[in-house]
Amino acid sequence: MTIFPPEPKDHDTFIDLDKLWSAAMRRLGVIGACVAAMVVLAGLYLVFAQPMYTSMTNILMDDNLSRYAEENASDNQSAQMLDNRMSSAVEILKSKELALSVVDKAKLDQNALIVAPPKSPVDLVKGMLRGVTSIFSADAPALTEEQIAAGRREKAAAIIQQWLTVERVGRSSVIAVSVRSPDKLLSAQITRTYAESYLTEQLNANFDATERASIWLQERLNDLNTRSQQASLAVEQFKRDKGLISPRGELLSAQQLSDLNSQLIVAQADAATAAARYNQYKAIIEKGPEAAVHNAVVSNRDTDNTVMQDLRKRYIGINDREQAIIQQFGADHPQAIAMKAEKQDVTNQMFRELQQLTGSFKNELDVSQSRVESMRENIQRVAGNNSDANVNMVQLQELEQKASALRTLYESYLQRFEQASQQQSLPIAKARVISDAGVPVSPSSPRKTLTIALSVILGLLIGCAAAAVLELRERFFRTGEDVQQKLGMRFLGYLPRIAGAAREDAPKPSAVPEQGEAANQPVGDPISFRRMMRVAVEAPRSQFAETLRNTKLACDIVLQGKKCAVIGVVSCLPGEGKSTVAANFAGLIASSGARTLVIDADLRNPGLSKMLASEPEVGLVDVILNKTSWTSVARVDRRSRLTILPMTTRGRQVTHTSELLASSGMSQFLESIKDTFDVIVVDLAPLIPVIDAKAFEPYADAFVFVTEWGATPAKAVQSVLQSEPQIAAKTIGVILNKTDLSELHKYADPGAPERLRSNYLSYYRDYKEVAAE
């Protein structure tokens, strides 16, 4: 089995609600503290927050109001056009110009609640600082009455803009205007004034725009009228000067040229047809009489010459009879020779007929070409006469287009001018109020119920986030399952925290009770160092003793058959309680009747030796160096019959501790006492700071690993065991020391033994109960 087996992959995609609930219960204090803090802050906010009252009115942007006043009013508007119109209306309501209009109409610059509101503590502090700085600054010039009034007006407009909220209601044509202020009547007054000012602004804007358009259009009409008349006169004058008179609106020379072009196209087509026919018959004649006979079929398709058709039929009949005689009597037969001579005669007749046809086609071609040449000469003559007239017509068309454009533009502007004049007398706004602003009966903010509810929700969110952070930062051993999953080792059990116990590296008190005095201490007093060595012995039915008893059983199974078992007790870091575990583990074994020796081998910080009533004069180092015998150094606990070999550093600084533990003196010492004891428990130094335990490893038969519950990082234990495979191979199991049993069940999965501790708690007797007795 590997030390760190790979964690099994969880293919379940669902969230483990049990683990989430357990994590929430573990961090319930953090979550509760966050919720309480947020509720307290919300309460302070509700106490000191100024109540605000909100008044609202709704304005409908209605085009139907001007349907009959505008000739070009459109019933259909695209969604984008409507959105643009509503967005523009919202921005107009938020504008500074409209805010100044509201201030002037409602005389808000004279309202003390707006221009001189009660100052908050923060404002008072700012005023004091501003007064102090003004002492050292140059005096500003005095303001005039007009400047002071303008400043009050600007301030009032800025404040009501902060109070104002304008938004479109969904996708409708309704705009909601609301005002929040400390005074309910003031909120209603400002809201109504805003609606009235907006409608008035719409009327004024329409009237001003129409008036400006009418003035501009009048000026343009006068100019266009003059220019249009001048252009029409220029057209007539040009026609008269050039003599451009045409019955159909075009020149006579242009009409003649068009007719000649049409005739030329027809003549060219006829000439091309005649040339093609002539070339075809000429090619047939050039091939000779024999070829002419075979190509005579073409001539039959192009002409209705009956002579050629008869000659063709005669030729075919003579050829058929000739072939029949040759097949019956041979080519030398007199009739075959006569038929051949007759066929030659027909061939000559057909060739002469084709020559006559070719001559006639040549005459037709010459006539067509002459006609084409004549047409071209006439076109050139007419085109030369028409060139000057065309130039004049181009100039005339340019003058006519200019006159027509000016006339059309004048008519368009005249129509728009008439429309603007009519609209100027119809002051109709495209908006109306559909919900008047009322006086609010209760403040809109702060909302007490909502604020408290939000504070609770926010506290829960912050608390859950803090709990999640704490859970993610959890890198310690909490349960035996953590030990098995992260280390792949046997879990030996939990050792509860001994109430009132001091840390191993803490200074020893000046007076420590002896064995008999420890039993007479009050229950709530700190446990003496000497008594901490006998917790398992004095409370044999406690969970503390049961865990050590389980550890002893595991060692007995693994080390079965050993004459004298050497068991090392190690940990990663100082202060994890390994010395207390070693002393109690050895005491438990000794109380069962086995001859047991516990050795304090932590040469640099002998925590086990500090538990004794008095610091020894000599110790393990002297035994290893053969300066004294171990019997003169060892001490015996009369109650548990445990032999203790302490360590002392009085008067000397021990260096090279690892070399002492790995020396031949240590080996000889262990060999010399193996016949005397059945079990030797060795309290070794922590693994991370020093290498003493690694040096002692060859002499140890097994190791018991001690980690502090909720304090020793799992990564540190993994790193140590990976770097020390010899120690890992000999480790019997892991003990979780200083366990808070009241919190243990919160870290266990549902159904785990840690969750069922209340069911078997009657099997244990706590150490406090034993001490009280």
Topology:
Blueprint: H1 17-26, H2 28-48, E1 53-61, H3 79-94, H4 96-106, H5 112-115, H6 121-136, H7 145-163, E2 164-168, E3 174-181, H8 184-242, H9 252-286, H10 289-294, H11 296-302, H12 306-329, H13 334-424, E4 431-435, H14 448-472, H15 480-487, E5 491-496, H16 515-518, H17 529-532, H18 535-538, H19 543-558, E6 565-571, H20 578-591, E7 596-600, H21 607-610, H22 620-624, H23 630-633, E8 635-637, E9 642-645, H24 657-661, H25 664-673, E10 679-683, H26 692-696, E11 702-708, H27 714-723, H28 725-730, E12 731-739, H29 741-744, H30 767-772
Parallel strand pairs: 5-12, 6-10, 6-11, 7-9, 7-10, 11-12
Antiparallel strand pairs: 1-3, 1-4, 2-3, 8-9
Helix pairs in contact: 2-14, 4-7, 4-8, 8-13, 9-13, 12-13, 19-20
Please tell me about this protein's structure:
- It catalyses: L-tyrosyl-[protein] + ATP = O-phospho-L-tyrosyl-[protein] + ADP + H(+).
- With 773 residues, the chain is of the alpha/beta class.
- Among the domains are: 55 residues, no CATH class; 133 residues, no CATH class; 243 residues, Rossmann fold, CATH 3.40.50.300.
- Helices cover 59% and strands 9% of the residues.
- It is built from 30 helices and twelve strands.
- α4 packs across α7 and α9 runs antiparallel to α13.
- The two termini are 47 Å apart.
